[in-house]
Amino acid sequence: MSVCSDALRLLSEIGREPFDFQGEAVQRAVSTVDNAGRGLIQAPTGAGKTVIAFLTAALLSSRVGPRWSALMVVPSRPLLRQHLTDAGWLREVCGLPVHFLGPDDPWPMWQAVLSGPGLVCTTPQSLRSRLDGLGSPKILSRFDVAFFDEIDTFITVELEERRDLWPVLQSCMDVDLPILGFTGTALEDAAVRVWEQHGFERFEPEIPEGWLPYTVIEFVGIHNPTVITEDARIDDRLRAAYAAYENDGGNPRSWQTIKLDALGGPRAQTARRILTLHADRLLLFEGATDTTGKLDAVRGALEGKTGLVLCRYVAAARAMHSYLTQSRPRIIQADGTMTRAELERQAQALRSGEAEVLVMTRELGGRGLDFPEVQTAALLSPRSQYQAVAQELARIRSRRQRTKRTFVFYYTKTTEAAKARRLGQHLARDNVYRGIPLFEVATAPHARDIPARDLAHLVNEETIAV
Length: 466
Known about the structure:
This protein is α/β, with parallel strands linked by helices and 466 residues long. It contains 18 helices and 17 strands.
């Protein structure tokens, strides 16, 4: 039997509907490992990339036997927890040991797990902190293959909060491990060339038409004169601060350099001024006192519905939770300050119907945030990296069980409006996989400014005056 048919048979055994494109992706992945190569499997969010990775692990381990071992690196702990839940069938059906290693696990456990068989799952931050103490990154050479989920975040080192991910991928390449990377991001030509330069061969499975979940996205602009005026003032001050920093010999394009200077470098005073102004802007868009317009808009969108609210920061999530509980008692909150058990209890409360609305910070969403009971989702404040926001929206799905109506709330005539406009353009034009749209953009900001060819799913801007 072929690898493809073996994969489809295994899918049936674990109670999942087999799709040919998943079996073909597994066959391509196994072939890459057999040839000691590096492969990048690009498929849209919802296409089952995690299942494809686990199927590949199952088939590779069945050929090698009990000595087989693999490393799976996942960019965040919430996503890692989801993977561990999904990997249960590997132990039950295939007898493949699956291990979780976190930053709090003791050294003896790390040493035992990294030297034994099975699938070792961890985050890049945890692994990087342990490599030197375990005898240098060369210890990675004992693995048969390394899996990197959402691998685009590992190589895009300039993204905020992602600069510490690249060294772990580099360590695996340095010891010539076969590497399989998975991404749901539609890669631009320049990104593809970067991957090719690092020896990765890209593969895009043929996704059947109509297979992907379909989510209606509506952009809602909120007009708040106070926020608009203050944002303009901050923008003027930022331009002056950046100019002063550059005149002092700094590089305003390097955010890392600015942060280092603020800690006591040669341009500490001007660097701290830049950081302070950015913090002021975040409070303006996300703070409890200035977000009344967004709070009202979200409350209206969720009226009488089961919903998710995704906030960028803990402060905004807490403000939203406090505001919504004034009119609806069954509101719960989840953020990064909670333990794993507490987060699971909150998620279960929404799934069981005990709670009506879950307010959460967006980094907890992981990949495949799936609550079939939820009718409406609200996302506050798009950020500059619009491709990442598109991924966040794609994760709010129902695995074809129910279509969710999703709202993106932003302030008009501010820097948020520009970010929302880029996101709207991306969803309407770029975020399409082989003609299958992930989204219907029902309402977009500044639609008149978007080229006519991009207006297929756009209508006039909807604005709420505050």
